[in-house]
Specification:
about 850 residues, alpha/beta, Rossmann fold, Tumor Necrosis Factor Receptor, subunit A, domain 2, 29 strands, about 40% helix
């Protein structure tokens, strides 16, 4: 292709050189591509492919070989006739280009080489009088590849080129194609629309079949590039050529075996016709086909065999337009309107299956047949899409010429340069004014260009809906308009029924991997496309509350994930409550202890004058019973939600009451020892430990503990604390010790008194039974010490509310031990053995012994 362009450049350079007025230049090689022309003050050129499919005629070496075209293209004829209609409409307009007539020269060619030669002929054509009459602009071509080649010729000559159907985004490069403009949107916008379409329906996993041509190759590359940015992946990209039969087998096998449900068919119309004609032999179902504007509105593609493929097909099309008068102009056309055109006769013979030459196989053409009876692309005047772009392209050149010819105070109001007349118009001046054109056509179409020579992009989203009779209805279900604000460019109609691929009523799902639900995180798999990611459950203590979340979020310390790990819920709090079984049982035992202590006090109070009560130091006994009641009651302060006051009260009350309790027991033990000493001859030891001394000793022992507690509370007291370290999923409400030294000082002082009491009771264990309370005290202290020794490791290792339960259990156990061991035997005697509750029994004969 590059070599052809170079040759054409050389030809043009030769043609544009004039050495004398009488010298004429001619194009070397095949000429005669002009089909329609009309003279005017200013000429517009046009290049069309009214014929296609080149065939080489070699003439058996008897003459020079040449190529000819053997297939007629109704659509391109329609484009050419639309250009003629528009020129005539402009010439009738008294406001646009007044006093100036517009003419045209329309050229036909098939294949890139002939089309380029046609463009060269358009640039260097002569009018009917043989005089040079240069075109001011060239319209065409519908193919992006041909337009690219033509613009390589026109750009050095500063001749503007306006295409009505070349959509390749590559042509927006003004450095390579400085004179190229188009009234059809760039594929860049269509690609963005297709990506938004895929994103809207959540089709993240698609396949692409494209033709080996610039239009589809460039478009496919752009789609893949933009799709990746939006999380859309391509499972396969399969090229299609018309000549390769092996390719179609590969395509069929890949489409059938692929997991993607959406297939983008990115091809020009001619390639699409060839592809579908081959695909109709295969039963391909269950796929959603997406088309481009090049073929998506071509109803002649439909057939019974292709119904399984095209039913539900979807894609962007050029917007519908109404061009008043164009339909009648096209249908009222007769061969007599172009008597010199052989190609018109060929079209007429094709439309009516007749012949202008005598023939035995077909009827004679009269030239008066009615085109309204023919069904073809040319006679379809119900909807104008691509034709509207031809209409706008002609008006674009006309408005540029109109702006160029304006004159105010000796200068052009647009550029400020000197005015020019219609005889001084040059293509480069037209090019300069095209850049600033901004107008609205008679049918309401707005035309303007950005810095790349691209117009505003507008598309209709259409859907193929096959009927039972085999006919197809192309329904407009939405639109894409780049002039709308961001987020509203793509809109789907709410009240329109959509038929999906395979005639399904449900929208197909096309994803490589379903989105990661909340509670999981999305992880990219480097060995797979970005859409084929992995989903991993969020680790413990973290959540994700969005679909396809890339990370899991850590819950705040006071919160914990729910089972699905998609929300952070407040952690449940745990403390020993009165409402739960363990709390209720401990409360019950505490109340029982208070009741038994109170009952014992009542029994002792009723029988306070009996010998057994008097003999066992009734004053210390009553004080001991009071302290036991307080011990049982203080256990209740450990139950319930910790507060500032309950935390300070529970430890200090426990420490003080237990010291009071142990002090009383210690006093009773000392009294027993002193009583035994007092029975020995000449010993008056009881005067040193009488009732007053007993009260003082109990008071002093207790005040020491009170002083320890005051220091503890004043320096670093216990306080309520939320422990979130032991359990991850819940909060333990507990009382922090504040000062650990204070806590262990309280326990240590209680332990010191208990050990001292145990030692003294142990020494008095062999005293006479009648007076001896030391055995009971020894046993009670043994239980007390055993409980509190085992309490320490249990307290340290118990979790949560069980820590409090262990402490309550130790308090209740030691309190019950003292109550049962010291007072139950005496109550038994008072109630069930009253005969033993006598002074005679207590003052029984004492065996002689020496210490």
């Amino acid at each position: 292709m590059y070599s052809i362009v170079v040759i054409i450049h050389v030809i043009i350079s030769l043609l544009t050189r004039t050495k004398s007025e009488n010298q004429t230049c001619k194009v070397i090689g095949q000429t005669g591509f002009m089909e329609f022309s009309k003279e005017g003050d200013l000429i517009i050129g046009g290049v069309f492919s009214m014929t296609s499919t080149r065939k080489l005629k070699d003439n058996d070496y008897q003459a020079l070989p040449y190529t000819y075209c053997k297939k007629l293209n109704d659509r391109e004829l329609k484009f050419a006739r639309t250009l003629i209609f528009t020129v005539e409409e402009i010439n009738r307009d008294t406001k646009l280009l007044p006093g100036v007539t517009v003419g045209y020269r329309l050229y036909n060619g098939c294949g890139s080489e002939n089309l380029i030669r046609a463009a060269v002929e358009a640039v260097n054509g002569e009018d009917s009088k043989g005089c040079k009459n240069q075109i001011q602009a060239l319209l065409g071509h519908s193919s992006s590849g041909v337009s690219e080649d033509i613009n390589s010729i026109l750009s050095p000559l500063s001749i503007p080129q306006v295409s009505y159907l070349s959509t390749c985004a590559c042509l927006s490069n003004k450095k390579l194609y400085p004179t190229f403009f188009r009234t059809v949107p760039s594929d860049r916008f269509q690609i963005i629309g297709l990506v938004q379409l895929m994103k809207y329906f959540d089709w993240r996993w698609v396949g692409i079949i494209y033709s080996m041509a610039m239009y589809s190759e460039e478009g496919t590359d752009l789609f893949v590039e933009d799709g990746i940015k939006e999380g859309i992946c391509v499972e396969y990209r399969l090229p299609y050529t018309k000549t390769s039969e092996g390719k179609i087998n590969t395509i069929v096998r890949t489409v059938r075996e692929s997991s993607s449900k959406v297939v983008l068919l990115f091809m020009s119309l001619s390639f699409t016709k060839s592809f579908l004609s081959k695909m109709e032999n295969y039963n391909i179902t269950g796929k959603q086909w997406i088309g481009t504007e090049s073929w998506i509105t071509q109803q002649d593609l439909a057939s019974v065999e292709r119904k399984s493929i095209l039913q539900g097909a979807m894609g962007f099309a050029l917007p519908q337009a109404s061009i008043p008068g164009l339909g009648e102009f096209l249908l009222n056309f007769k061969p007599s309107d172009e008597p010199q055109s052989a190609i018109i006769k060929s079209f007429w013979e094709k439309f009516f299956d007749c012949s202008f030459s005598p023939s035995n196989t077909s009827t004679m053409c009269t030239g008066t047949e009615d085109l309204k009876t023919v069904s073809s692309d040319y006679t379809d005047v119900t909807i104008f899409r691509a034709e509207n772009n031809v209409y706008k392209a002609v008006y674009l050149v006309a408005y540029a010429l109109h702006a160029l010819l304006q004159c105010k105070d000796g200068s052009n109001p647009t550029t400020g340069k000197p005015c020019v007349s219609k005889n001084e118009v040059q293509p480069k001046l037209v090019l300069e004014h095209i850049k600033y054109v901004n107008f609205t056509t008679q049918n309401g179409a707005k035309v303007s260009f950005d810095e790349n020579g691209d117009s505003v992009a507008q598309y209709d989203l259409v859907n193929w809906q096959m009927k039972e009779d085999g006919s197809v209805e192309i329904v407009n279900i939405g639109q894409y308009d780049t002039s709308f604000p961001e987020g509203k460019k793509f809109q789907l109609k709410d009240d329109t029924k959509i038929v999906w691929g395979g005639n399904s009523n449900e929208m197909p799902r096309s994803v490589c991997r379903e989105p990661c639900p909340p509670g999981t995180r999305k992880a990219i798999n480097k060995r797979k496309p970005i859409c084929c990611f992995d989903c991993f459950e969020c680790p413990e203590g973290t959540i994700s509350n969005q679909t396809n979340s890339p990370d899991c979020l850590i819950c705040p310390p006071e919160f914990w994930p729910n089972e699905k790990r998609d929300r952070c819920l407040p952690k449940p709090t745990e403390y020993l409550s009165y409402k739960e079984i363990m709390g209720a049982l401990l409360t019950g035992f505490g109340c029982i202890g208070v009741f038994l202590s109170l009952l014992t006090s009542i029994i002792f109070l009723i029988h306070k004058e009996t010998p057994i009560v008097k003999a066992n130091n009734s004053e210390l006994s009553f004080l001991l019973l009071l302290s036991l009641k307080l011990c049982f009651l203080c256990s209740l302060t450990f139950i319930g939600q910790p507060t500032q006051w309950s935390c300070m009260l529970r430890h200090t009350a426990f420490g003080i009451t237990f010291v009071l309790c142990i002090s009383c027991v210690l006093g009773k033990t000392i009294v027993v020892l002193m009583a035994f000493r007092a029975t020995l001859p000449g010993n008056n030891v009881m005067k040193w430990f009488g009732p007053l001394q007993q009260r003082i000793s109990v008071l002093i022992f207790t005040l020491i503990q009170v002083l320890i507690c005051i220091i503890w509370l004043s320096t670093n007291p216990p306080f309520p604390k939320m422990n979130m370290k032991y359990y991850k999923e819940k909060i333990i409400l507990e009382c922090a010790l504040g000062s650990a030294v204070g806590f262990w000082a309280v326990l240590g002082y209680i332990g010191l008194l208990a050990v001292l009491c145990f030692v003294l009771a142990f020494l008095a264990r062999k005293l006479p039974d009648n007076f001896n309370e030391a055995k009971l005290i020894t046993f009670s202290m043994l239980i007390f010490c055993a409980v509190w020794i085992t309490f320490i490791p249990a307290y340290v290792s118990s979790p949560g509310k069980f820590t409090v339960a262990v402490e309550i259990f130790a308090i209740l156990s030691s309190s019950f031990g003292l109550l049962i061991c010291i007072f139950v035997p005496k109550c038994y005697i008072i109630i069930f053995r009253p005969e033993r509750n006598s002074k005679k029994h207590l003052m029984g004969k004492i065996p002689q012994r020496t210490l």
